[in-house]
Automatic annotation (TrEMBL):
It holds the Pfam family 7tm_1. This is G-protein coupled receptors family 1 profile domain-containing protein. Signal peptide: none annotated. InterPro entries: GPCR_Rhodpsn (IPR000276), GPCR_Rhodpsn_7TM (IPR017452). The chain crosses the membrane at residues 51-80, 92-111. Its main location: membrane. It is a multi-pass membrane protein. It comes from the Eukaryota. Keywords: G-protein coupled receptor, Membrane, Receptor, Transducer, Transmembrane, Transmembrane helix.
């Protein structure tokens, strides 16, 4: 019978590692805290994003938030102020605008925590 290798080899390419990096797991599961931290960092990446990514994400979120709030409030305002806009379809659009506004106000600010 073939003798097994004491180390089990896993390729970490699906975990955003470069092709040269590989993770070697000890078969006996004798890991130090540093080993576990290194494996987690290789698998998940760092906790923080670089400054360019943060600025781009904040800019995109601000654009989505501001255009959504202004557009939905103006839709509701137009439907309420103009009596000829009081139709069944426009009431439906009004309820959609209110629900979209609530999603923007309640969900978008906490989506990336």
């Amino acid at each position: 019978m073939k003798e097994s290798n004491p180390d089990i080899h896993f390729d970490c390419s699906p975990y955003n590692c470069s092709s040269e990096k590989e993770i070697y797991f000890n078969k006996n599961m004798n890991y130090t805290d540093e080993d576990i931290t290194e494996m987690i960092m290789m698998a998940l990446g760092s906790k923080r994003k670089d400054m360019f990514s943060v600025v781009v994400l904040i800019t995109v979120y601000v654009i989505i938030f501001s255009t959504g709030v202004v557009g939905n409030i103006s839709t509701c305002f137009v439907i309420v102020k103009n009596s000829y806009m009081h139709t069944v379809v426009n009431y439906y659009l009004f309820s959609l605008a209110i629900s979209d506004l609530l999603i923007l106000l309640l969900v978008l600010p906490v989506i990336n925590k």
